Amino acid sequence: MHGYESLPTDAALLTAVQQDDTAAFRQLYDRYWKALYTKACQRVDPDEAKDLVQEVMISLWKRRQEISLPSGAGLAPYLFTAIKYRVISHFAFQAGEIKKAALFDILDTPAASQLTETKELEARIAAEVGRLPARMQQVFRMSREQDLPIKEIAAQLDVSEQTVKNQLTEALKRLRTALAPNSAGEWAILLFYLFCHIRS
User: Fold this and answer.
1) What is the share, in percent, of the chain residues with pLDDT greater than 90?
2) How far lies 61's CA from each of 54, 55, 105, 137, in Å?
3) How confident is the model over 2-10, as a mean pLDDT?
4) 12 near 69, Cβ under 8 Å?
5) What separation, in Å, do the N-terminal and C-terminal C-alpha atoms of the chain show?
6) Ranges for the RNA polymerase sigma factor 70 region 4 type domain (predicted)?
7) What angle do CA 79, 84, 86 make, to 5 degrees?
8) Which member of 78, 161, 181, 192 lies 3.0 to 4.6 Å from 154 by CB, making a disulfide possible if both were Cys?
9) What one-character DSSP code corresponds to residue 96?
10) How far apart are CA 70 and CA 67, in angstroms?
11) What is the pLDDT of residues 106-119, one digit of tens each?
12) What is the pLDDT of residue 134?
């Protein structure tokens, strides 16, 4: 007995998971699966969202010994950041020749989030976004600046969801070429900015 039955906090469940308790892991899985899936569906297809959430939860199990929570904190910030990273790696894999796992490892560092705050990067991205074709730029801004899900963008513009996805993927390809990142690390940082530096 690990005591999480009477106090099923994230911290208590995580402690049990770190002792290889699969029942505790299942409780965490059930607690967060729907919310993570809903978040992922704002950016990718439902089937893809299921796969990404599964990857996040598998990663949680594999990294269970490395995770520590501040006093009184839950797992939500960790898991929602993780699903953002998985979405980023998904699009990066589509738009460039980068392995998902490698990109996830690059993004999963404090340095990446610090570098995305630089004014230089922000200015470069803004300039290149302004050079995108009008409709592509509109779709990109609705997604990244207004934080609208693909379904809503498609409805507002009266186009198919696939058209929106195609526009976003092409925008990423063009931005990658224009900004010419020299390494997987630079590409990861660029993608982190494009997908995570948006209004919540």
Assistant:
1) 30
2) 11, 10, 16, 39
3) 63
4) no
5) 39
6) 125-175
7) 95
8) 161
9) S
10) 10
11) 445 544 444 444 45
12) 94
Domains of the chain: 10-101 (1.10.1740.10), 112-196 (1.10.10.10)
Contact of 108 with 133, CB cutoff 8 Å: no
Q: Which amino acid is at 127?
A: A
User: What integer pLDDT is reported at residue 184 of this predicted model?
Assistant: 54
Helix, strand, or coil (residue 140): helix
Give the residue with greater pLDDT, 34 vs 145: 34
How is residue 43 written in tokens?
A: 């950016």
Residue predicted with more confidence, 78 or 43 = 78
> Can you tell me the distance from the alpha carbon of 177 to that of 181, in angstroms, rounded to the nearest whole number?
8
3-class DSSP state for residue 144?
helix
> What percent of the chain clears pLDDT 70, i.e. is strictly above it?
70
Strands (E) across the chain are located at none
Q: Are 167 and 153 in contact (CB under 8 A)?
A: no
Q: With contact defined as beta carbons under 8 Å apart, do 193 and 116 qualify?
A: yes
The tokens for 182 are 């020299």
- Do the beta carbons of residue 49 and residue 37 sit within 8 Å? yes
Supply 116's token pair.
């995305």
pTM value surpassing 0.85: no
Among candidate residues 86, 99, 77, the one with its CA nearest the CA of residue 49: 86
